């Protein structure tokens, strides 16, 4: 069995009775299989850690306790705190316990976030079963798992997303998450700021906001720790502590420590005596407390402790020893002295130490002059890169502080790792830091060019204009350098960002396609993070509606890579599925989407899975199988579940998780089909803020405004989406949405009596459909032409159009288009009568 700490009665904690009772009640509920998230907030020194430790110590005899603290955001990798949690667990677990999921700052052994989240939740469930008493069905015998997550204000966004997922799925598990954060540091610049409202709401978290303790609580603390003969002395001391410590437990304890050190508070037998405080005013700044404590160390010991401050808030023992260059005995002396004066605490993982307070570390760090600090950070970077699997975020952090130009390389590595974890906001931050360093250090311009492309692509969904600014610089660099590979990649990125913005960039896509070799690849493009190849280019052509070109490139790419398994293979199948469905080859479309989803499943790529499910829903299920309601809803649910496993790319650089962009246009299609107009409008207004979702949002808002009779608003949305109106030439990356907008625009013109404009829109729709060779949507446009003829008073021509629509919707069978055609024929029959 896993070993737990022996039961110890925790030291009394004063002024927190309500909070203690609340936490104990939560733990008791967990024993009965009702898990919970608890969030403890307050300023630095308010006693968050003490409160949690007090309750944890009381429950340790029958609970598994795992503790970790977030690093400063500048060094935190994706999922950083969870990696520490499971590392701590693995050290404690016996062989008969389930192995911990591997989270190493990327996605560990899981291929995508969804699989990682599912693995961790399953691990907690298996662990809970193992901790239950064997053979005992009494639920009260279950041992809870207490997971303490400290300093969440420093957490990376990926770690918070995982916490959110777990917190809403532990209600039937004996698991408690105890998270703490400094509320004053939860500002718009940190991930917790945007995540916190939804985290609290969705998980129904128990929240404890710690306030300053009162003089009464301080009086009880003094009475318990420093029994005195005279009650007046105790009350005087309590009042003094309250005056100078302001009810902050950390300051209060430190003031008492200094009073003892100064001889103002002395033990006499089993009692304590308070001497005249006089005019002594103990400063509140912790720096002075630290200075006084450090006086008890030798100069050599203090210097070694300062090196620990250079490392960070947490100090791995082996790294500290290497950096200090001292033998074990010398380091042991420093550690023992530091523990004795309360500067350090031992990490729960038993492999290092942590500063008792962040301000302790800051005080020590600032005592080093700048040149010495830079030298030590440089030495730390060297030590880290000489080790196995160095953490790029931490290496970059130390090289940055050292002024070492190698920081740029490691920032790029950190950014690329973040992209692979779909942590686009973190990736953008790292890339921009790297770009600044590359500019300052005048490193090779080609390096800047590739970095500019990577940086631009992190903004392609959320801020296309910003992304294009970076890409323009990359294109100019490639031209100046004569770098063909960089030139191709930058043009590809340029086409993708322009396409997502709604511009017609098909010429650029053709230019990239022409540069690919027979295998659908380009030599020398290996440095590209999201490089062009046959699969991705074919998918772009399919999105633009150029179906023949998409089929040609995709099939050729698959033929040249018969045994390959990659995301690009999945994109090639996506292109075939889109093109086949649009041209009416239903069996070919189903087969291609199935093959693509199989590849995505083997890759454990939720992003690719979500994309394939979206398009299958839009182009196969809704047009051809809409009458199979359960199948439609299941596919929609599968798509949403897949997208829930990844960070939406549109949220790069944004902290507000309440404003999450939609997954794809299929979300709107199902909402409109089900009559959920208000929900569709709410989501569309959110998506207007994201460049990669704006076109579809305008389409939906135009449709809703037209159906509601808000014609001026509908025209405004139409103008924003298609500023050139009916004269817009094929094609558009939002090809399907453009077709939908054209039909809506024709309906809008009919409703407002502008039949000439309605006809222009109907003609434009047929031109786009003919250009692509598309079978779908021809029937719907025939109905619109019938409505135009009807409005002109020619019921015979209207009826002919409706009959043609019925024929087009019957072969291949399109249930929704059939209903529309039959309904219109019925309407015309009533008009004739």
Describe the structure concisely.
The protein has about 850 residues and is mainly α. β6 and β7 (about 270-275) form a beta hairpin.
The count of DSSP E runs of length 2 or more, i.e. the number of strands, is 10
Radius of gyration: 32 Å
**What is the global morphology?**
elongated
The average pLDDT is 86
End-to-end gap = 85 Å
Task: Please tell me about this protein's structure.
This protein is mainly alpha-helical. It has 37 helices and ten strands. Strands 2-3-4-1-5 form a five-stranded parallel beta sheet, with helices on both faces. Strand 3, helix 5 and strand 4 form a beta-alpha-beta unit. Helix 19 packs parallel to helix 21, helix 27 runs antiparallel to helix 28 and helix 29 packs antiparallel against helix 30. The radius of gyration is 32 Å and the shape is elongated. The N terminus is likely disordered.
SSE inventory with pairings:
Blueprint: H1 17-31, E1 36-41, H2 48-59, E2 64-69, H3 80-92, H4 113-131, E3 145-150, H5 157-167, E4 175-181, H6 191-203, E5 206-209, H7 215-225, H8 231-245, H9 249-261, E6 265-268, E7 271-274, H10 286-294, H11 299-311, E8 314-316, H12 317-324, H13 328-340, E9 344-346, E10 352-355, H14 358-366, H15 370-386, H16 392-402, H17 407-420, H18 424-441, H19 445-458, H20 464-481, H21 484-501, H22 506-515, H23 534-544, H24 547-560, H25 567-582, H26 586-603, H27 606-624, H28 629-644, H29 665-673, H30 677-687, H31 694-707, H32 711-721, H33 735-751, H34 755-772, H35 778-791, H36 795-810, H37 815-832
Parallel strand pairs: 1-4, 1-5, 2-3, 3-4
Antiparallel strand pairs: 6-7, 8-10, 9-10
Helix pairs in contact: 1-2, 5-6, 7-8, 8-9, 10-14, 11-12, 11-13, 11-14, 15-16, 16-17, 17-18, 18-19, 19-20, 19-21, 20-21, 21-22, 22-23, 23-24, 23-25, 24-25, 25-26, 25-27, 26-27, 27-28, 27-29, 29-30, 30-31, 31-32, 31-33, 33-34, 33-35, 34-35, 35-36, 35-37, 36-37
